[in-house]
Amino acid sequence: MKNSEQFNSLVEQLRKLPGVGRRSAERIARALIIKKNTLLRDLVASLTAADKELCCCNICGALTLVKQNPCRICNDTERDNSLLCVVEDPGDVDLLEDAGGYKGKYHVLMGRISPVRGQGIAGLRLKSLIQRINEGNVKEVVLALGSDVEGDATAQLLREALSDQLIKITRPAMGLPAGSGITYCDAWTLAKAINARQEL
Ligand SMILES: [Zn+2]
Fold first, then answer.
1. How far, in Å, from the CA of 64 to the mean position of ligand 1?
2. N or C: less crowded end of the chain, CB within 10 Å?
3. Distance in Å, CA 70 to ligand 1 centroid
4. Domains of the chain, CATH where assigned
5. Higher-confidence residue: 19 or 71?
């Protein structure tokens, strides 16, 4: 079983998911087959529904419904168009929204640069960020990135890329958890850090 092409293919697909190593992928694959009539088929149904109904917002990159694209935040006329918060991951948008207090808009980079892993700017949503700044009335960009080496490198790159823009560039005042973007920061700390942001 372990060497069958189908099983290996399933394991390889599962391994592409964030945080899933080979052993976990094999364990998940076995569990799916053992509970084929429930777990596997329910998962297939959820994946099919997600494929059909969920997507990333055309403008900011946050997760949204296919039938609500641009997303609720991008369409919200009450929110401040002059304030743009740049985050690494769509999950960071949810976290900042849960924290409350932030009334600007968002831009998800979909990753960050990593000098150690040789990951550059390719794949980051940088062009669309510059386009949004050029088109809109953005006055301030808040870089809500991780406070580790990769977060700093990404912030530095963004600062250089945006250097000829007539905008204020800020970062949250307090250090955010290293290596995880802002994902594991508690809501109170996050809301406070965003409100007390500092100019770079
Ligand atoms: Zn959006």
1. 8
2. N
3. 5
4. 5-55 (1.10.8.420), 63-199 (3.40.1360.10)
5. 71
Amino acid at 140: E
CA distance 89 to 102: 17
Distance from the alpha carbon of residue 197 to the mean position of ligand 1, in angstroms: 22
108 C-alpha vs ligand 1 centroid, how far in Å? 9
Instruction: Please tell me the distance between residue 87's alpha carbon and the centre of ligand 1 in angstroms.
Output: 13
Q: What angle do CA 197, 199, 200 make, to 5 degrees?
A: 125
Instruction: Provide the H-helix boundaries in the chain.
Output: 5-15, 22-34, 41-53, 72-75, 90-99, 127-135, 149-161, 187-195
- The answer on pLDDT for 181 being more than 70 is no
pLDDT for 179 equals 47
Q: How far is the CA of 26 from the centre of ligand 1 (A)?
A: 36
Neighbours of ion ligand 1 (CB under 5 A): 57, 59-60, 70-71, 74
Is the ipTM of this structure higher than 0.90?
yes
- Using one digit for the tens of pLDDT, what is the confidence trace for 84-115? 999 999 998 998 898 888 999 999 999 988 87
Q: How far is CA 16 from CA 35, 151, 178, in A?
A: 22, 23, 23
Beta-bridge partner residues of 56: 63
> How much distance in Å is there from the Cα of 143 to the middle of ligand 1?
17
Question: CA-to-CA distance for 104 and 102, rounded, in angstroms?
Answer: 6
